[in-house]
Design a protein that fits this description.
483 residues; alpha+beta; six-stranded mixed sheet; five-stranded antiparallel sheet; 8 helices; 51% helix; 16% strand; rod-shaped; disordered C terminus
């Protein structure tokens, strides 16, 4: 017969183990209390018998047998004997006196069972300890004390601990069963959620009880894991859809170009031009796939294992010096304010790519004569990299989507690009636990990347280029220098 499920749960097994451990403790404590209490009571009884024997022996030595017998009779008349019995023997071992129980003549200590005297449980004999004392002239005094109360006390102790043990085991088993049912209910809830997700309901989540216990914390962690898996699946679905839509056009152009060359007669120059266009389309497709693979690698988190201390100030200053002439060649103005001594743990190559992407994005999507400003500053929360421009900016309704893969603003669809640049920026920022925000620069756009890691050192001045020394502010519009 298979054991019921409730008895196989970890909670019931723990409760049973606790019950066994506590039961063993109760039994050990009962043994200690039993032997200690009975031994103490036995010693007290023996001491009382010795004391009474010594008193009566002293009476005998003072007045002989008559005085000792008088003392015994006085005790009996005054009912002051307690539970003691007296027997006196003559020189010829003849019994001269006996109380309720005739005690045998034997020197020293002995034990015997006699007829019940009324204070024993029904059907039990009286139990006595007997102490015999030899008196001068051959007389003997024998005293007996009822030790039944010692046995009764021991039985009471054992009975009390027995009930305690029974109550403990009952409560432990009952509590274990109750806990097991509660535990099984919550485990079944997790199982049902997992089965629903396996069945296709990927938005199902484990309900929380708000108890802040281990199972609630486990459920919350599993829910976050499921949210992460759900977001990755949604991203995968979105990537698949985006690839299907955004790569269909270049693949269609590539096929059309090759088909035209195959079907129509042409010169060598026509063939070379067609091949060049096909190579260009193929390179664009390969670049798109390379960007997607790079984003996937970054989002997997494997690059975090190679994190090192990166000097953001030196990195941003180097990129500013690199892009300043590029911006000027494009007919735009460039300035930078870089606070020194800012460093974080990160991947230098990826950070450089992230900064370069946002700078190039500003260069490509601002009109001639626009001004672009790059800033790196220290805040109480951590370093912040910012880039300001006074171009057309991004509408509020589209700012939340520009970091999606293949998403491009309508006005940007006529320019070269795959729409993956800002997606790569978002992936790198997430890898470095950085937050990206977009805001209006009045006019233009402000893009800020806030890092959670703080840098060492204090900023006392700023490295600047293009002749600008003002401290950068997120709400400060870009000023175009006079021509």
């Amino acid at each position: 017969m298979r054991t019921p499920r409730v008895f196989r749960t970890a909670s019931f097994k723990l409760a049973a183990l606790y019950a066994v451990s506590f039961g063993a403790s109760v039994i050990a404590l009962a043994g200690v209390v039993y032997f200690t209490a009975t031994a103490a009571l036995d010693q007290e009884t023996r001491a009382r018998v010795r004391s009474e024997s010594a008193i009566l022996r002293a009476e005998y030595q003072l007045g002989g047998l008559p005085r000792m017998m008088g003392a015994i009779h006085d005790r009996q008349r005054a009912h002051n004997t307690g539970d003691l019995d007296y027997s006196v023997y003559g020189p010829e071992r003849q019994l001269l006196f006996s109380g309720d129980t005739r005690l045998p003549l034997a020197p020293g200590w002995s034990e015997l069972a006699g007829p019940p005297d009324g204070d024993e449980p029904p059907g039990e004999m009286e139990h006595l300890i007997v102490f015999g004392t030899v008196l001068p002239k051959g007389y003997s005094l024998v005293l007996g004390a009822d030790i039944g109360r010692v046995a009764q006390l021991g039985s009471a102790i054992l009975a009390t601990f027995g009930w305690v043990l029974l109550l403990t085991i009952t409560l432990a088993i009952g509590g274990g069963i109750a806990l097991s049912f509660a535990f099984l209910g919550r485990i079944d809830s997790i199982t049902r959620t997992a089965e629903a997700i396996i069945g296709g309901d990927i938005h199902r989540r484990i309900p929380l009880r708000g108890a802040a216990d281990d199972i609630d914390r486990l459920a919350a962690t599993l829910n976050r894991m499921l949210d992460r898996i759900g977001s990755l699946m949604e991203a995968l679905r979105q990537v698949s859809n985006d690839i299907a839509h955004d790569l269909r056009t270049p693949l269609g152009r590539l096929r059309q170009t090759l088909d035209e060359v195959r079907r129509g007669p042409g010169t060598r120059a026509d063939y070379e031009a067609a091949v060049d266009r096909a190579v260009g389309e193929t390179d664009a497709i390969l670049d798109t796939f390379a960007a997607l693979l790079r984003i996937a690698q970054i989002e997997s988190g494997t690059r975090q294992g190679g994190f090192r201390v990166v000097d953001l100030s030196e990195l941003a200053d180097g990129l500013s010096q690199t892009y300043a002439p590029v911006t000027e060649d494009a007919g735009k103005h460039f300035q930078s304010q870089i606070a020194p001594g800012i460093a974080i743990d990160g991947d230098r190559e990826l950070l450089a790519q992230m900064f370069a992407n946002v700078i190039e994005n500003a260069i490509h999507h601002t009109p001639d004569g626009a001004a672009i400003r790059v800033a790196l500053r220290r805040t109480a929360a951590g370093p912040v990299f910012e880039i300001f421009d006074n171009g057309p900016g991004i509408p509020d309704v589209e700012r939340g989507r520009v970091f999606e893969r293949f998403y491009r603003l309508e006005r940007s669809r006529t320019t070269a690009g795959s729409g993956l640049g800002l997606s790569l920026v978002a992936a790198i920022a997430d890898l470095h636990d950085a937050k990206i925000s977009l805001s209006d620069n009045h006019p233009g756009l402000t893009l800020a990347i806030a890092f959670s890691g703080y840098s060492a050192g204090e900023t006392t001045d700023s490295k600047t280029s293009s002749g600008f020394n003002a401290t950068p502010r997120a709400d400060q519009p870009v000023t175009v220098p006079a021509e």
